[in-house]
Amino acid sequence: MDGEEPPAEPAVQSDFDKLRRIPWFYSQVVLTSTAVLCTVTAPLTLFAAEMGLGEGQIGVLGGIMPFLQVAGLLALPVIGRFGSRRVAASALTARYGFLCLFFLTPFFLGDVDVVFAILLVAMTGFALCRATAEAALIPWSQEFIPRAIRGRVAGRNALIYLPVALVVSWLIRWWLDGQTGLWRFYPVFAAGILCGIAGSLSLLGLRGGAPAARGRRAGPRLRALAEPLGDRNFLVFLAASGTQYLILAALNLFLLLFFRDLGMRSGELVFLSALTPVGAALGTLAAGWLVDRYGTRPVFLTLIGGQILLFLALPFMTAEMGGLAVLVAVAFFFFGLFAQTAMAIGGVYMLNVVPPASKEAFTTLHYITVGLVGGAATVFAGMLLARLSLAPLTLFGHAFAPFTVLFALAAMLSLVAAAAFYALREEGGLSVRDFFANFSTGSPVRALVGIQRIAGPTSEDRRRELAYGLGALRSPLAKRELIEALSDPSFDVRHEAVQSLGHLAPHEDVVAALSEVLGYDGLVELQYAAIASLGRLKARGAAAQVAAFLGSDNPLLRARALRALGEMGAVEALPGLRAALAEDPHLDCRLAAVSALGKLRDEESLGGQVEIYCEQVADEHAMAEPRSKVVLLALAKIIGVEESFARDWLSEQKAPGQVPPDLMLRLARMLRRQNEAQLLKRAAGRYRAEAPGEAWMAALTLRPLISGSGHPDAGKVRELIDGVAGIKAPHPALLILVLLGARRVLRK
């Protein structure tokens, strides 16, 4: 109703409302970044160079902005009094008023000192307003950006800004290279100022950033700086972030001058430098997605590694190289991809670790620290280049160019930043080793494609296919999506996801998710698949939960649990496995116990396994023969001849009648002139697969030699022979196993 006051803003803003208003933040980033592209970056550097300013003076102009970030500390009382939202919008708007001083420079052409003084005053005012605005905006962003998507917001910001940056840079190039005289820079500056003001006002569309309570304004906020100064982990982060910003601030400026010295035109350089935000956009988009999943530390270190390689490659660029413009474009792109993305990732880490109640103190300390470091670095880099241009550095009789020294220093400082970031603590983040393991196993590129597809709108059949495909790729990158698929409304998708998880690495999250499925009483198929997957993963930590299924009324679950325990190597489950071998009423479960005990190399169960084998031999059922092979393979594992048995039996199936006589002849050569050797030779010469009686008797005569061999496995082979000696017409597979066991223990 008219005359009523609007409702008060809620104390806690919902995530939905934050997401609804995020486009205002995107708008501010795009417009402000466009303004910066038109004013205080490449155009200002090239404008100052054409006005006759030297590298030292340009270094001061470039360094004043980060150096004066210390003013953010002085802005804390103002932020507390008026609130982050109002201060950020007002200061960002006011800073463009100082840039209007650029338009006074035509009146002082020829007097370099006066021009420098005007530009210095303009940049000082701009820097003070910028410091005030960012001291308010950075902690405020913790309020209006939900934690779960901070990495993705950083990536989206870069992505939506990308086409604007390319278009603006192309227009600047078209304008500067199509005109002559210093005046051609002024329309560019004017357009940037207008865009900057519009971007500043976009912040008013966001919420939060309210003034502090009366008791928490100036004094307590300043004293709160003691908290981050006492946080050792945060101080390590300051060292890493400050070192990276030192590199970024200096090379943002001097890369332009390096390429200008190679003969590149001003307009072309402005356009090509737009590839820096292109690289930053693509890098931040990908890195932000990875950060939300795996943490900041491994992503940051990966980027620093690429940054070091870039800095080591830059000194090899010369004016005489063919395709110089392409190489310059590549250099700008990778500088954005590695250096600027790394800095953005550091910002995400900061927002994730600083306590919300003290966010102003932490973020302000970070802001002024990197500002002092970056400003000093820019001034120092300018002085260093000026000094080296007069007296080049000479080592071992070789003189190094000034920019070569600068790039070498940047590479060494990158190592310092990497070492500091490596030492950081990060809750929930992967270690560097585990992060790279995600990309060294399976098919990571195809997995990334599949992850994006499964996240989109798909049918049940398509989701099932994607779940199957992600498992087949065996990439740990798909872990999260497959775990989330366990909650899919489709039973088939959940079943496929359970099976696919069994093909990944046995990560604790995967094991925990599959262990939870074991409790899905009534969903036998899912329980069965989960048991199978845990066995495939050899998840010993879940052995107790799987062993509980040995008492299940469902014989399929019992059998699967028995096999899984064997795959896990769960020796603690041996009593239950032996009991199943002897007592379970279902043959499938007893055979599963045989398989498991074979995998565990359980000598005590050898006799019981031989009994089951003899039962199958006597059984006339068609399935008895393939079932008996399960027992023979388990016995081969216990005796220690598994690989030889599998190979020789497969060979015998392909060419019946070939393997047993060959084994007998080998044994005969081992025994030389002993009587048993003659029996083996005679049986080998007469062997026929359909009538193996003579060969079988020759094999049984080896028992005394086996007993006296002294081999540690001799007792197992003797027990096997004693158990099967009563079989009159042995299967060739049994004959092969006995001959292999004999050869193992009789070999000298």
TrEMBL record:
<keyword id="KW-1133">Transmembrane helix</keyword>
<dbReference type="InterPro" id="IPR011989">
    <property type="entry name" value="ARM-like"/>
</dbReference>
<feature type="transmembrane region" description="Helical">
    <location>
        <begin position="188"/>
        <end position="213"/>
    </location>
</feature>
<dbReference type="InterPro" id="IPR020846">
    <property type="entry name" value="MFS_dom"/>
</dbReference>
<feature type="transmembrane region" description="Helical">
    <location>
        <begin position="298"/>
        <end position="318"/>
    </location>
</feature>
<feature type="transmembrane region" description="Helical">
    <location>
        <begin position="158"/>
        <end position="176"/>
    </location>
</feature>
<keyword id="KW-0472">Membrane</keyword>
<keyword id="KW-0812">Transmembrane</keyword>
<protein>
    <submittedName>
        <fullName>MFS transporter</fullName>
    </submittedName>
</protein>
<feature type="domain" description="Major facilitator superfamily (MFS) profile">
    <location>
        <begin position="1"/>
        <end position="429"/>
    </location>
</feature>
<feature type="transmembrane region" description="Helical">
    <location>
        <begin position="58"/>
        <end position="80"/>
    </location>
</feature>
<dbReference type="InterPro" id="IPR016024">
    <property type="entry name" value="ARM-type_fold"/>
</dbReference>
<feature type="transmembrane region" description="Helical">
    <location>
        <begin position="324"/>
        <end position="352"/>
    </location>
</feature>
<feature type="transmembrane region" description="Helical">
    <location>
        <begin position="271"/>
        <end position="291"/>
    </location>
</feature>
<dbReference type="InterPro" id="IPR004155">
    <property type="entry name" value="PBS_lyase_HEAT"/>
</dbReference>
<feature type="transmembrane region" description="Helical">
    <location>
        <begin position="24"/>
        <end position="46"/>
    </location>
</feature>
<dbReference type="GO" id="GO:0016491">
    <property type="term" value="F:oxidoreductase activity"/>
</dbReference>
<dbReference type="Pfam" id="PF07690">
    <property type="entry name" value="MFS_1"/>
</dbReference>
<dbReference type="Pfam" id="PF13646">
    <property type="entry name" value="HEAT_2"/>
</dbReference>
<feature type="transmembrane region" description="Helical">
    <location>
        <begin position="115"/>
        <end position="137"/>
    </location>
</feature>
<dbReference type="InterPro" id="IPR036259">
    <property type="entry name" value="MFS_trans_sf"/>
</dbReference>
<feature type="transmembrane region" description="Helical">
    <location>
        <begin position="364"/>
        <end position="388"/>
    </location>
</feature>
<dbReference type="InterPro" id="IPR011701">
    <property type="entry name" value="MFS"/>
</dbReference>
<feature type="transmembrane region" description="Helical">
    <location>
        <begin position="234"/>
        <end position="259"/>
    </location>
</feature>
<feature type="transmembrane region" description="Helical">
    <location>
        <begin position="87"/>
        <end position="109"/>
    </location>
</feature>
<feature type="transmembrane region" description="Helical">
    <location>
        <begin position="400"/>
        <end position="424"/>
    </location>
</feature>
<dbReference type="GO" id="GO:0022857">
    <property type="term" value="F:transmembrane transporter activity"/>
</dbReference>
